[in-house]
Design brief:
Layout (H helix, E strand, L loop, with lengths): L3 H9 L32 E6 L8 H9 L7 E6 L6 H11 L5 E3 L8 H6 L3 E4 L9 H8 L4 E4 L14 E4 L4 H13 L1 H9 L7 H20 L1
Parallel strand pairs: 1-2, 1-4, 2-3, 4-5, 5-6
């Protein structure tokens, strides 16, 4: 199972008792690690969102929270995602953003550009309304040494440790998210502390090694 959340849900449904291990996904870091960071000391605080622009991913929560920040708090928000799908929701997002020049809809990007996109923001926000089974976007951010603010839900909160490598806020809590964003400007040392708290990211190669070891163990058990 890729997360403890999935592990527990499987067991609750009577599946795989005694036969499940938690193994976080490994990611391809080749286009992320080593990409020069566009270093920035806020203000401005460069906030980013990458992913599917659909209601369950919660980008509307982020825009509401961002727009509630004091105007004198210098920050920008770049939203990366396909604006040709879920058009009614995209229209809602644009209405929420209004004429706020601090908010930009940057559109989608090619997979090879993920390292560059992440290098140009100070914090990634993952405001999902549903359980994230395996938050690859969070792993990618950590590979780029970019802290994450995420919803305090299983899958995400299993990876983002509040105050260590990122910050958490309650589900659908616009004020809670705004407060965490505001902290990154009002507490100058916080962002660097969160960056320092990001540990090594599991790679695809790590996953392959782990899978080979698991097969060897299972073969050994069967032969015994």
């Amino acid at each position: 199972a890729p997360t403890r959340l999935t592990h527990d849900l499987l067991l609750k449904n009577g599946i795989g008792e005694g036969k499940i291990r938690v193994s976080h996904y490994g990611i391809d870091t080749s286009g992320i690690v080593g990409v020069p960071r566009n270093r920035n000391v806020p203000p401005p605080l460069r906030v980013g969102f990458t992913g599917t622009l659909a209601p369950h991913k919660g980008c509307d929560i982020l825009i509401r929270a961002f727009r509630s920040l004091p105007r004198e708090l210098d920050a920008t928000l770049s939203i990366h995602g396909n604006v040709e799908r879920h058009k009614s929701f995209i229209q809602e997002l644009r209405q929420l953003a209004g004429d706020d020049e601090r908010i930009s809809f940057a559109g989608p990007f090619q997979r090879a550009k993920v390292g560059r996109v992440l290098s140009e923001i100070d914090v990634l926000v993952v405001p999902s309304r549903w359980y994230e089974n395996a938050p690859v976007v969070i792993y990618e951010a950590f590979a780029a040494k970019t802290p994450v603010i995420a919803t305090d839900l299983g899958g995400m909160s299993e990876v983002v440790e509040h105050g260590k490598n990122g910050l958490l806020f309650e589900l659908d809590n616009v004020k809670g998210l705004a407060r965490q964003l505001q902290r990154l400007v009002e507490e100058p040392e916080l962002l660097d502390g969160l960056r320092d708290g990001i540990g090594p990211v599991k790679t695809v190669e790590d996953s392959m090694d782990e899978m080979e070891q698991l097969y060897e163990e299972l073969i050994g058990v069967k032969q015994a």
